[in-house]
Write a structure and sequence with these properties.
This protein is an alpha/beta fold. It folds into four domains: 2-132, 3-Layer(aba) Sandwich (Rossmann fold), CATH 3.40.50.2300; 148-257, PAS domain (Beta-Lactamase); 291-360, Helix Hairpins (Orthogonal Bundle), CATH 1.10.287; 368-521, 2-Layer Sandwich (Heat Shock Protein 90). It is built from 15 helices and 20 strands. The chain has helices at 21-34, 46-50, 70-73, 92-100, 115-147, 169-174, 189-198, 259-328, 332-364, 378-388, 390-396, 414-430, 462-467, 477-480, 488-498; strands at 2-4, 12-17, 38-43, 58-61, 64-65, 68-69, 83-87, 105-108, 153-158, 163-167, 221-228, 232-241, 250-257, 375-377, 399-402, 409-411, 437-444, 448-455, 502-506, 514-521. α8 runs antiparallel to α9. The longest helix is centred in the middle third of the chain and has 70 residues, at 259-328. The relative contact order is 0.05.
Length: 540
């Protein structure tokens, strides 16, 4: 064996079968001269060649040997090992016979041995072709292993050789080719092209899928969509696979039945068109409905106010006369009857006044700006309300403590602050049992002013706490027996929200008292949606 290696190249194992020692020596000298990476085993006869058990990348063999010809050796050789015949006999018949039996090349020895300088080139080209063929088979094997799972059609072909290299199940299905009847090995590219063209609508003249590259242009790709019979839309993409120089060009085409996708796209487009048409008139319709709703609300508010005034007018003389008549009546039965009438009249007037107040607050929302008013002293107003409520406080033996510091102010209409505090304090007075305690406390933090009204009264359930600010809501039966219209706390909440504030209620249960907390922002820059929850931050 003659090892002739270079560091840059992979060694090539060659079996040279030649009975002429001069030719063996000539090849060895040429290999050394060109520094070729060849490892060569020499055999001088067919018998010696058959005894070799090694595997080779290439076999070089003389046509005529002492014990036979290369034709005798070909049947027992590995089909994967390429064979080059190098002979001094320029016989065309022998060359054709050898090539038919699988020989890859047939070289004729010339007296000057120029063939030796050509031999390495032929070896390189032949081994490159072998590698390309192995890569192609490996790729084909890979495609066959995964092709069934690919949802789109894959088609590999060589137009120059009219060869179909690969086609998966989806390709057969898209173009209606019976896979069981026509395997890939029996397909030709020309037949496939004609079949596909026959499947297209007439409008697809000049079908571009299998167009050839323009002269001098390498790596060109093309894509598009065509109409197939049966109202189908087929999208396609074709590209040239880079190959070695001298190797027939190979192409890959991808096909996808996009009929359903196009239908879905058309449906979305139609829906978008209708949506745009609807949006074009939506703003106007919303504006019209908003104006109609505001008009209806204004009419409702005006109706309540009108009815309230109409009801309040005949009540005025009753409110003035009935207490006088009750006071001067000496008959016990008549005096009691007048007392019932007087109490009912007062209730009716109170209810009408609260309803009118609620409707006035609804009308005030659009124009009211709390930042245009002067600050009010909270402690001073609390003191006034407690003073006016002394009869009730004393009659029930209640203890009322005002711990709000004098001078602590808040920016709000004085009438609004008075109503909020009055209704919260009256609520505590009404629902606190005799001997109980009511406490008012307040303060400021970084963003708001807050105050709380706490009592040791009858308390609230969890459900009551979640609905206590609803219009006309009355809590448990113990509250229904007391003098309440269910509007006082609803009015308080409307007043707090009108001033961009936040109100919360907390009770640990029935009989455990209640605490109402109100907080209002100190700065106009604070967001009206921000909530200042002072229930957990401050305690009485």
């Amino acid at each position: 064996m003659v090892p002739i290696l270079t560091a840059e190249k992979r060694e090539i194992r060659i079996h040279y079968i030649e009975d002429n020692l001069i030719d063996q020596y000539a090849l060895t000298r040429e290999i050394k001269k060109q520094s070729l990476p060849y490892l060569i085993d020499f055999s001088s006869s067919l018998a010696e060649a058959r005894s070799r058990s090694q595997s080779y990348d290439l076999v070089i063999c003389d046509y005529f040997l002492s014990d036979g010809t290369i034709l005798d050796l070909l049947p027992v050789m590995n089909d994967l090992t390429p064979v080059i015949v190098v002979t001094g006999q320029a016989d065309l018949n022998n060359a054709v016979t050898a090539l038919k039996l699988g020989v890859k090349d047939y070289l004729v020895k010339d007296p000057e041995r120029h063939y030796l300088s050509l031999l390495p080139i032929q070896i390189e080209n032949l081994l490159r072709q072998q590698q390309n063929e192995r890569d192609r088979k490996r790729l084909s094997s890979l495609l066959f292993s995964v092709g069934g799972a690919i949802p789109f059609g894959v088609y590999l072909y060589e137009p120059e050789t009219d060869t179909v290299l690969y086609a998966n199940k989806a390709f057969y299905s898209i173009w209606g080719i019976p896979e069981d009847e026509i395997p890939v090995s029996l397909l030709s590219h020309n037949a496939v092209s004609q079949h596909i063209i026959s499947m297209l609508e007439s409008e697809n003249d000049g079908f571009p899928i299998f167009s050839q590259d323009e002269p001098g242009v390498i790596g060109r790709s093309w894509s598009g969509e065509v109409k197939a019979k049966g109202s189908r839309a087929i999208r396609h993409y074709t590209d040239r696979i880079p190959m070695e120089t001298g190797v027939p060009p190979c192409y890959v085409s991808i096909f996808e039945d996009s009929t359903e996708l196009n239908q879905a796209r058309d449906a979305v487009s139609e829906y978008s068109r209708k949506l745009e048409l609807l949006n074009a008139t939506l703003d106007q319709r919303v504006q019209e409905r908003t104006e109609q709703l505001e008009d209806l609300m204004k009419k409702q508010r005006d109706l309540f106010i009108h009815i309230g005034h109409d009801l309040r007018t005949p009540l005025t003389p009753l409110v003035a006369l009935l207490p006088f008549l009750e006071q001067n009546e000496t008959n016990v039965e008549k005096k009691n009857a007048l007392g019932v009438l007087c109490e009912s009249t007062m209730k009716m007037r109170s209810l009408i006044e609260e309803i009118l107040l609620m409707k006035n607050l609804d009308g005030e929302k659009a124009s009211y700006n709390r930042w245009d008013v002067k600050p009010c002293d909270i402690s001073e107003i609390v003191h006034e309300i407690i003073k006016s409520s002394l009869p009730t406080i004393n009659s029930k033996g209640l203890s009322v403590r005002n711990t709000i510091q004098p001078g602590m102010s808040i920016r709000i209409k004085q009438i609004h602050l008075h109503l909020i505090l009055e209704k919260l304090i009256n609520n505590a007075l009404e629902f606190t049992n005799p001997g109980g305690t009511i406490t008012l406390h307040g303060g400021k933090d970084k963003r708001c002013t807050w105050f709380c009204v706490s009592d040791t009264g009858i308390g609230l359930t969890h459900e009551d706490s979640s609905r206590i600010f609803d219009d006309f809501y009355k809590a448990d039966p113990s509250r229904n027996k007391l003098q309440s219209h269910g509007l006082g706390l609803s009015i308080v909440r409307k007043l707090v929200l009108l001033n961009h504030g936040h109100i919360t209620v907390r009770s640990d249960g029935l009989g455990l008292g209640t605490r109402f907390c109100v907080s209002l922002p100190d700065c106009v820059k604070e967001s009206p949606e921000h909530k200042w929850d002072c229930i957990n931050s401050h305690t009485s």
